[in-house]
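so my prof wants the structure for this chain in the C-alpha cells format not the other one, which i didnt know existed until like an hour ago. anyway here's the sequence
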Amino acid sequence: MSTRSGAPARVTAVDIRREGDAALGIDWADRSTSVIPLREIRLACGCAVCRDELTGAPLLDPATIPPDIRAYRIAPVGNYALTFDWSDSHSTGIYPWEMLRALADRIESESR
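here's what i got, hopefully its the right format
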C-alpha cells in the first residue's frame, strides 16, 4: 500500500504528537502507531556534528545527552522529515520518516 505521495504507507506519517515531555508519538499511514523516546531520537541524529560524513560512524557520545532531554520545537521538513530544536542547544539534524520508523521498529523489537 502506498500513499498519494508515492511513499510506502509504512513510512508515511499521518499525525505526530508529543507523548508527555519525553517521547514523540507518530501515527503511520499503515495504521500503526509508534512512541519514540526523545533521547533515542536525539541520539540518532545524522548531522555532520553527530556522524562522520564519510563513514556514517557515530561521533556523538551518548553520555553527553541528558536522560531528560526535551524538544523545544518539532517542525516538518517538507513531506519527508522532522527537525527538532533540542534542550542541549542542538538543532541541525534532519530526521527522515524512514529513519524514525526504523528507530521505532528497533526500539520495539528490543523491548520484546
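also thought this was worth mentioning. The two ends are 27 Å apart (CA to CA).
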